[in-house]
Amino acid sequence: MDRVAVIGLGYAGLPFAVALAHRGFKVVGVDTDEEKVELINKGVSPVYEPALNDYLKGVLERGLFKATTSVAKAIEESDVVFVFVGTPTKADGSLDLTQLENASEDIGRALKDEGGYKLIVVRSTVLPGTTEGVVKRIIEERSGKICGRDFGLCMNPEFLREGKALYDIFNPARIVIGEYDKRSGDILESVYRRFHGEKMPPVIRTSIVNAELIKYAANAFLAMKVSFINLIARIAQRLPRGDVIEVASGIGLDPRIGRDFLDAGLGFGGSCLPKDLRALIKLAKSLGVDAKLLEAILEVNETQIDEALELLRRALGDLRGKRIAVLGLAFKPGTDDVRESQSIKLVKRLAKEGAVLHAHDPLALDAAKRVLQGIGNVAFFSDVYECARRCDAIVVATDWGDYRNLCFERLGETMARRVVIDCRHIIDAVKASKAGFKYYGLGIYTE
Ligand code: NAD
Fold first, then answer.
1. By CB atoms within 10 Å of each CB, which of 48, 195, 233, 306 scores lowest?
2. What architecture does CATH give domain 3-206?
3. Catalytic one of 147, 154, 272, 391
4. Ligand 1 centroid vs 4 CA: distance in angstroms?
5. What's the complex ipTM?
6. Model-level pTM?
């Protein structure tokens, strides 16, 4: 079972495929996007992820990985098929299953002509009921084969973080295997035992529906921590000497709470937390379950940008015509992904208020230009100091390491006013103040 196919070579699928090959599996990656496949086969990752290019080149050189647009070819050359296609949400919050349905059709057609038993593993995030109700149904219809007899089926949620994808794939906190039957679960567990060797993480073997729900429950809980601390930040900011960072440390040391995901900021974004939360709310409602708690998480997130605007107004008054540098456009550091980025939403809100925007990001400028196309008065800069020139304020929106050591003397020389709004608590407030900046930290009381 060391011949593997990975269908969908995006932010999650490509690092997983490359990691499997790195550990000696023979991997065929599939994507419908010909341009992506071409790049990947040349050793260039179409998505940014630290170290991924080096690993990709390594496995290509060792002949352990190749990419193709043909599902049939990949299935012919593999025993286990991981499905990593996108599952975005539609405007009404429900999942858009087009990519998954197409991939299932392709797998079904390919299995029709196959003699041997294959294991299909759904790794895309899908709502409870989807793996059996959509993937299994379509594969059986198209192939004429029977799940459990001719092919196996698992739902195996992925928990990686973009920007730390390879680390998370090599060091997962747990592996959740939702199995259609024991045979399917045994095969998948053996793949992971081979992959992790001595360092095998805890494994949870469960039903497919539980595995599907575990992924949503995990993401909703993480989103809840973020919105919770953001709400506490709003309170702390309004209390003389209040400071959300100290409150987060004070509660985070309690092992029942934990410090992770308690960094106040502009709110959560990206391709997972917001969409998964919306989909879970929709599911809860369809089952007659009151989803107020989940809805409140989204509501806090959606209004968190107002907090940054409030700080800017306190510093600058009316924002019309004010020139503002927004540092960080990716939804978090370490990635070029701007999907549902709160910084992008901030730029849009500021533009709507009539501000003139200067935008900077170490990696995500191209992606940001695409999503901000047509939004008036936004200029893009690849140099932070150029970005800040003539501005009335700097807003640190994403916690890129690059922003930790900014030279405030140099920034101040060319700025119209010396104001910094630190939404991610990475600026040395003392250094900034020494250089004549008025410092505002989100969640921190300012006179
Ligand atoms: P993505 O959009 O970056 O990648 C999806 C890829 O699938 C694209 O390259 C697309 O061209 C390809 N594709 C679409 N239809 C296809 C088909 N029929 N056959 C072959 N390829 C096809 O998405 P992503 O961020 O990698 O997410 C993929 C899944 O993994 C989603 O369900 C997501 O919720 C889940 N997930 C993502 C992350 C993450 O951090 N990005 C983490 C955990 C889970």
1. 306
2. 3-Layer(aba) Sandwich (3.40)
3. 272
4. 17
5. 0.99
6. 0.94
